[in-house]
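Batch manifest, entry 17 of 40.
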Amino acid sequence: MTAFDTLLDGYRRFRAGEYQEQRRRFDQLAIEGQSPPIMVIACSDSRVDPTRVFDVSPGEIFVLRNVANLVPPYEPDGGQHSASAAIEFAVTQIGVAEIVVLGHAKCGGIAASLTGRFDGAVAGEGHFIDRWMAMISPARDAARAAAEGHPDIDAQQVLELAAIRLSLDHLRSFPFVAERVAANTLTLRGAWFSIGDGSLRVLDDATGRFEPVAP
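Output type: structure tokens
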């Protein structure tokens, strides 16, 4: 049995189980389209599925996933920007009221940035990863320096949290996001999920700290 065969088996279970259980919901979505009130920007990591972390039903969240849950800065340069296009669609077309940047522990992209594994890759393996992760290079350098001066500091976690903050800053660089935030019709949030113990921390705008959510 191939990996794709396991997906087909999963589809059959879904079709016979959850799809039937939520048939009315799927029929409604098919007719009316989608109108989720919230967008979640999460990592592509197979261990962190936002629909499971937040236990949501189909149609409840609009999800963008990429390496290290990063948001690039606003760059209207004529290039092809999949992350920016998804954000634009969610904000201007769907009209989401909230955007959550969801980071997580043990992120492979963050680890690659810290180790410098793909730094300077020109072609072949690591080229696209290096270019993508370059946007957090200043935060990476700061995390490294902090860990060198204080051995008890977890540079990986420091950079995971810093990347969430940076992505929120980059979101605000999009004019259509900034306008809606200023008008109080759009709220930006940061969150961090621990794979190991299942805990969730949410960024508190007042304190600037990631505070644990009570289970």
